[in-house]
Structures are given as structure tokens and as C-alpha cells.
Amino acid sequence: ALTSKALTTLGISTYDTANPPTFAPLACTAVTAANPAVVSMANTGSIQVGDIVRLYNITNMQQISGYDFQVRVVTANTSITLMMDAS
Question: Among residues 23, 39, 51, 67, which is most buried (max CB within 10 A)?
Fold first, then answer.
């Protein structure tokens, strides 16, 4: 189940690292070597701006596999733009 938490006071929240939320993987076709990096994908699922995504087994850019990135822009069912300079 997807979970969302809105902060109404102080902007501080706890995060349970022993039980982090997990979601079904979404396939991507490529990542641009640009600033910012854009991940092409046919299904962006429930990804939203500000979400943290982990990329793995990226065919054209294995050097970023396993890293977490914050989502800057979502173009529904086309791509997500990351807060990352991949140029």
C-alpha cells in the first residue's frame, strides 16, 4: 500500500529505516547524460515531484545504478527529471 504523510508543524518527521516504504519497480528505457538527467519511462506510476527514487540496472548508465535521487519534474507516463547533473 502506498503511504503519504503531510507535515503540518515544524517540518520535522521521523522515518523508520528498519521498515522503509517500498513500491513496485517501474521500467525505464534510458537516462539522458545531461543536466538535469531525464529518465524515459512509459509508466511513471504514482511518482510525484519531491519523491526519492532508486535507479538500478540502467542499461546506458550503470554508474548511477543503486543511487537515490530526488524527482524534480514528472511528465506523466513519459519521463521523470531528476535533481542530478549527469552531463
Answer: 39
